[in-house]
Specification:
5-stranded antiparallel sheet; about 250 residues; single chain; 9 strands; alpha+beta
Length: about 250
């Protein structure tokens, strides 16, 4: 974890996107690299250190291998709890973060066997259920307030037309909880078309993304957003969204 934090901090304070390739993978890669292209390097105060890690390691014999972790992320004088997933593609490669999300409150208690391993389980269709909910299916899952409000989101004076909502990119990861359910890390990709507004009322990240690509907003702007989500899938019944972050990954 210390070695990964060093790679993360080198990437944060670099002018280039390439250092992120040594630190992140999977669902985390697109939002992190898109942010780096929009805003460039961040100040040294954005560097992090990690404290009090608790590891959730499933029993594995082949690559790729992965594990979950809860830790305190310290940056700029503040602490926040994060839940993440690290992946190692082969014996020669390093551990890279595939999921990283601030998490408030207590996550479900995970099960452990006699040797301390946490069983890896199915994601129970939670990513597809989340995509269906964002597409209008009220019965797909139990949302948190952000997910619920996101379906009615307005962007300045722009009309928002929702397009495809799909699970991914990247793998989903799930670990068994003590009650027989699953704690699930996953991603959802959402397409939105913005139409008929003034450039000044576009979200800042959309304006900056277009400017970096040398483009100006026309009558419509095509955007792609990626969700990083942590959810809970019970042994039976609807899954629940526990927390998420949403990032712009493309605009044209």
């Amino acid at each position: 974890m210390r070695e990964w934090a060093e790679r993360h901090n080198r990437a944060v304070t670099s002018e280039d996107v390439e250092p992120w390739q040594d630190a992140v993978t999977g669902a985390l890669e697109a939002p992190v690299t898109a942010r780096a292209r929009r805003f460039g390097k961040l100040p040294k105060s954005a560097r992090i250190s990690l404290a009090n890690p608790v590891f959730y390691v499933p029993r594995q014999s082949e690559y790729p291998r992965w594990f979950g972790v809860a830790a305190l992320e310290r940056s700029g004088g503040g602490d926040r709890q994060v839940l993440g997933v690290f992946v190692k593609e082969d014996a020669a490669g390093g551990w890279r973060a595939a999921h990283w999300l601030t998490f408030k409150g207590r996550p479900p208690q995970l099960a452990r066997d006699k040797e301390g391993y946490v069983p890896a389980v199915s994601e129970s269709g939670l990513p597809k259920a989340h995509a269906r909910y964002l597409g209008g299916d009220d019965d797909a899952l139990i949302p948190d307030s952000y997910t619920s409000n996101a379906r009615d989101q307005e962007m300045g004076d722009w009309t928002v037309e929702r397009g495809a909502v799909t699970p991914g990119p990247g793998e989903s990861y799930a670990l068994r909880t003590e009650d027989g359910g699953a704690l699930v890390w996953y991603a959802v990709k959402e397409e939105k078309t913005l139409a008929g507004g003034e450039a000044s009322t576009l979200p800042e990240e959309v304006r900056v993304h277009l400017e970096k690509n040398g483009e100006e907003p026309g009558e419509t702007v095509q955007t792609t957003w990626q969700w990083l989500v942590i959810g809970y899938a019970p042994e039976s019944g609807k899954g629940r969204v526990l927390g998420e972050s949403v990032s712009l990954v493309a605009a044209r």
